[in-house]
Amino acid sequence: MIAREEILGLLRSMGIELPPKTKLSDAELDKRLSKALDSAQFLTRVVPAPPFDPTIYPPWFRTQSPKPVLEAIRRNNFAEATLVEMSQRRGIDNPFPLYTNAFMDLRQTLMTIGNACDRGMVPLVLQDKEQSSGICMRVLDVRQFDDRTPIVIVVFHHDLEDALSRGSFDWISSYVTGSAGHSASAMLNVTATVQEQLLLLRLLNQNKKRLVSSYKPKRASTESSFTLSFLLPVGPLGEEEIVKYNTNNGCSVCGEPAKQKCSRCSAVRYCDAVCQKEDWKIHRPLCNSLQGGKWQGLTFVPVDRPSAGLYGLRVNKYDTVADLQKRLDRMKEGVEPGPPPNTHGTTAFIVKVQVNSASAKGPAHSLFPSDPSQDGSFLFIYDQRRTIDVSVPRESVDAASFDAVRDVLREKGERGIKGFFWAIRTGEWALDICLDRFPEWQKW
């Protein structure tokens, strides 16, 4: 079990923001972390019914024209892929700063492990800068689930600074002295924060239980005390996972069912007066800015739904290839999109609103008519994580409500076509937009 505060921090690194004082039990938080990690490695696609035997899959390096494991193990969403491409054009090898996000660090370490596979199963030692925690690891085998999904079989052992095991000492010594048939230079030393190691250990300990007991690959004599497990490529959580693990329809402090709201701004809900009082210092700036605000209701439709001759496949920077494939499959099957999930409950959140214009640029422009005579006929609304990502066609909603929001956008927005607003979800297909109290300009 990982400490409660550490679990919350690890979940945050994966993009899962739970209420700061959540009353979810330690066991439930631990379970949520496990499920999120399984989702990040798309476990059910590779191991739908554990336990499994890796030998049913062909060896990676014996298949015809295999990719490097490093290349195959890499996973990105569209935002990350775009950033990588732009950085490479500028001569920047890694655009993601190290040691600031445990989940991103884990994914980069997995690519290092992939590199070790390509270099002949080179052993690795992962430890933090203070050398307070370390993991000895060696890749035993790589199997091919498909041409872009390696199954990396490893043995590992974890030690703390004040409890270096005899097994780890003998294992390291065998490579330092060359008695294992390798030179000391063949061992990779990887700097990994304690938080990253916690995530990696959780993955390894979850996956070790999914191997059949009869699977016993050959290992070195110094690895008899090491634990056998496997690793899969790990990528950013997709849209459905982000929604599932972030949804909070209750108290903004603890997540319990909300029974009352702030009487000054009506923008935040609480379970009781205790949580409301505890949250006041944090909530006060927002409360003061929204107090007495003018709100306008809007109804909306999903971008994926055809409307007035407009067809669009919703694509955003947080999407993975799997997300897009799911939407394409639903469109091909004629499945009507359901309402976007409400991850914000009845608490105010920031949305970006854009009105269609023939002069607009960016990904959203492709969703709007390019005919200048149709300018101002659609609003496009989304939040930062794109858990709500919808359109508001003027001809399908109350025209006065539509015009009220569009007119404020044209007066206050950037170039009269886009801007940030406070919003509150009021129904499956409805939200309120604040027309005279505005958040700071957002960088997303």
Structure, briefly:
32% of the residues lie in helices and 19% in strands.
SSE topology sketch:
Blueprint: H1 4-13, H2 26-40, H3 43-46, H4 69-73, H5 78-89, H6 102-118, E1 124-127, E2 133-146, E3 149-160, H7 166-176, E4 188-191, H8 194-208, E5 227-231, H9 239-246, E6 260-261, E7 269-270, H10 273-290, E8 295-299, E9 301-302, H11 321-332, E10 349-355, E11 378-383, E12 389-393, H12 399-412, E13 418-427, E14 430-434
Parallel strand pairs: 1-4
Antiparallel strand pairs: 1-2, 2-3, 3-5, 6-7, 8-14, 9-12, 10-11, 10-13, 11-12, 13-14
Helix pairs in contact: 1-2, 6-8
Report on the architecture of this protein.
- This protein is of the alpha+beta class and 444 residues long.
- The chain has two domains: 41-236, no CATH class; 293-434, no CATH class.
- Helix content is 32%, strand content 19%.
- Strands 8-14-13-10-11-12-9 form a seven-stranded antiparallel sheet. The protein has a five-stranded mixed sheet with strand order 4-1-2-3-5, with helices on both faces.
- Helix 1 (4-13) runs parallel beside helix 2 (26-40) and helix 6 (102-118) packs across helix 8.
- The longest helix is centred in the middle third of the chain and has 18 residues, at 273-290.
- It is elongated and about 80 Å long.
- The two termini are 36 Å apart.
- The model is unreliable at 363-369 (pLDDT under 50).
- GO terms for molecular function: zinc ion binding.
- Keywords: Metal-binding, Zinc, Zinc-finger.
- Residues 251-287 form the MYND-type domain.
- This is MYND-type domain-containing protein.
